[in-house]
């Protein structure tokens, strides 16, 4: 009996891990923006309170920070700030993607 339990334990833990990944994917959205400079695809992970996107051939993962208005994500260098269906991306307080408009699905 103990042997069966020990054999089933890794399977049960794997199931828990897969369930956690499934739930996280349910709370993740891909957002398409059309900016002045170029299109931008942002992955919003509500569970982790972070966004990720590719800029200058680099994958950026930004954590949610404080914002007086809208929602702000940052890694200390880049900032993704959105309010409603508009967004802006900054690098060291300089705008690098401006007038980003969320596209309808």
TrEMBL record:
Work out whether the entry's keyword set contains Kinase: no
Task: Please name the NCBIfam families in this protein's record.
Answer: PRK11372.1
Keyword Chaperone included in the entry's annotation: no
Keywords per UniProt = Lipoprotein, Membrane, Palmitate, Signal
Q: Which Gene3D superfamilies match?
A: 2.40.128.200
InterPro entries registered for this protein in UniProt: MliC, MliC_sf
**Ranges for domain C-type lysozyme inhibitor:** 33-94
Q: What is this protein called?
A: C-type lysozyme inhibitor
Give any Pfam family that matches. Answer: MliC
């Amino acid at each position: 009996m103990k042997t069966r339990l020990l054999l089933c334990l890794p399977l049960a833990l794997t199931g828990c891990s897969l369930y956690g990944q499934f739930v996280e994917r349910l709370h993740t959205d891909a957002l398409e923006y059309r900016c002045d400079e170029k299109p931008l695809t942002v992955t919003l992970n509500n569970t982790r309170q972070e966004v990720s996107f590719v800029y200058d051939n680099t994958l950026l993962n930004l954590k949610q920070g404080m914002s007086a208005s809208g929602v702000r994500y940052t890694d200390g260098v880049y900032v993704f700030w959105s309010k409603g269906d508009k967004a802006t991306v900054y690098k060291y307080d300089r705008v690098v993607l401006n007038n980003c408009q969320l596209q309808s699905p």
